[in-house]
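Please, structure for the following, as tokens.
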Amino acid sequence: MKIGVAKEIKSDEYRVALTPAGARELADAGHDVLVEQGAGEGSAFPDGAYEAVGAQIVSVDDVWGDAELLLKVKEPIAPEYERLRDGLVLFTYLHLAADKGLTQALVESGITGVAYETVETSNRALPLLAPMSEIAGRLAAQAGAYFLEKPLGGRGLLLGGVPGVAPGQVVVIGGGMVGYNSAVIALGLGANVTIIERSIDRMRHLEEVLGGRVTLLMSSSLQIEESVVQADVVIGAVLIPGAVAPKLVTRAMVAGMKEGSVIADVAIDQGGCFETARPTTHSEPVYVVDGVTHYCVANMPGAVPITATKALTNATLPYVEAIATHGLPEAVGRDPALARGVNVLDGKITYEAVAEAHDLDYAPLEDVLPLSPV
């Protein structure tokens, strides 16, 4: 199969969808790997590193035009819509529930869109979202500590405190992969950490793995309201796979927070869980609402592309190999987790939460692409 690796053109995005090590695995398996010129430079992988393992360096027109399977990191943006085409399988983060324009562009093009973030195993794990969630969670805690500094518009508080001075208060809304990693870094910085979570089983697990070092509270609108008022940093770590994030923190709650406190909304790719949140970039990462700094960068892991690119390839490569070896129909028939990643196929939306988010028609994947167990 011809596998293309596109260069990311979204603002401040330095990741690439495949490392040279991954390219070598695919080339050794007999596939043609086409890498767009300069695609890996932001992650410290020059074109020569790909050529050395058997990949071809090609133009943007060739990578989009010749590939049968195209690998990206971020969703296509408007200048790329005209490159979407019938017969191409696009494998990337899509986050369609928060982007009706992209959803319609994919549907109208006839392309097959497979979203990393909705590949889901039978035990509800999200193996391709997990590595970026780990990174984003850790970055969110770092950003919270950084933007608390007075010259940056913050309260002027050292999150970890010092002997004789109390540490800062970090509230994490959501105890999944993002929330856990946010808590790990915030604890490492010396903060007092509270995680608000709705699953008792998950809270019991967090109690065990974090050694009782965090306060765990059952999620409710009243509990969130009471907690954010006391917080110096609030991290939104809410996820409903493939769906728009619920607005758990209202404008009124934000207005009641401390002057100079910080919000980090890791759910911003799915619309954000703060009513006051809107996407930002690494170039302009923050803005202020009601005296509260908002850090809502839509591609947080893009700030650490060397780490993020390697972690992403580690997770995605087995799925890329499956599609390349068997073709998409057989690959999704063999693996229900991969089947859940198919969001758009043959001009139809095959992921229900995306269709619901935009009030569009939903077509179950098995009705569009009959699947038979292998």
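The chain has a mean pLDDT of 96. Residues 2-119+305-368 form a domain with the Rossmann fold fold (CATH 3.40.50.720).
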